[in-house]
């Protein structure tokens, strides 16, 4: 199956040039997050890892090319951070646990292409408090396993061309420090090869590598990794977890949560019909 994914992986990232967006730091850059995640910060220091990342050498998406992509502004106790996420049903958004485990509330942005354009008629914004955010019960701050979380929105969204769940290709996308959504094509590499660089890698992770030094670099944790099927439908297979801080220059792999390892968990904590 994985051989069919090669060459068709996409990472989607969100980026903004607005001053207040630019002032938002990635989770691992924030002191209160660092204090609560000592093991993860040790990994950052040891390998110069970035937890969640912004797309490097990617392509600008056309408006609403990835209608399931969400931007998340996560309020911590003392400041806010920014993450990515993906719409998986009318009521639920999927993201990384390290984005939400310290959250007070999360503001979810859907139907957005240009983060600085408040006149976009497709934009939907909802605020979700901690009581409606589920972090995987086996996720803890001593490591990066089970880095998965779901957010239940207070109001179901209406699907349209700008807002709808994925359907099926491998790509990663993000707003990536710019106003508009960007994406990059990636290739899956074996966990054996990836483990040579990340010794504690689990089977519940997926590793990717981009061409021409493209990939994730710094800033958009929680965003979706999707694969395009032969019929052009996109299906999400991963969640941005972490990547090497030196990966931009040296083409280190990026690491994602492998969603097939968490289908039962998603079935228990969302309204998503799961077929095993």
From TrEMBL:
| Stored InterPro entries | CLIP_Serine_Protease, Peptidase_S1_PA, Peptidase_S1_PA_chymotrypsin, Peptidase_S1A, Trypsin_dom, TRYPSIN_HIS, TRYPSIN_SER
Q: PROSITE patterns this protein is in? A: TRYPSIN_DOM, TRYPSIN_HIS, TRYPSIN_SER
Indicate whether Disulfide bond appears among the record's keywords. Answer: yes
Which UniProt keywords are present, listed alphabetically? Answer: Disulfide bond
Pfam families reported in the protein's UniProt record: Trypsin (PF00089)
GO MF term set: serine-type endopeptidase activity
Does the record carry Disulfide bond as a key word?
yes
The Gene Ontology biological process terms listed for this entry are: proteolysis
Please name the CDD domains in this protein's record: Tryp_SPc (cd00190)
The family note in this entry says: Belongs to the peptidase S1 family. CLIP subfamily.
Name this protein carries in UniProt: Uncharacterized protein
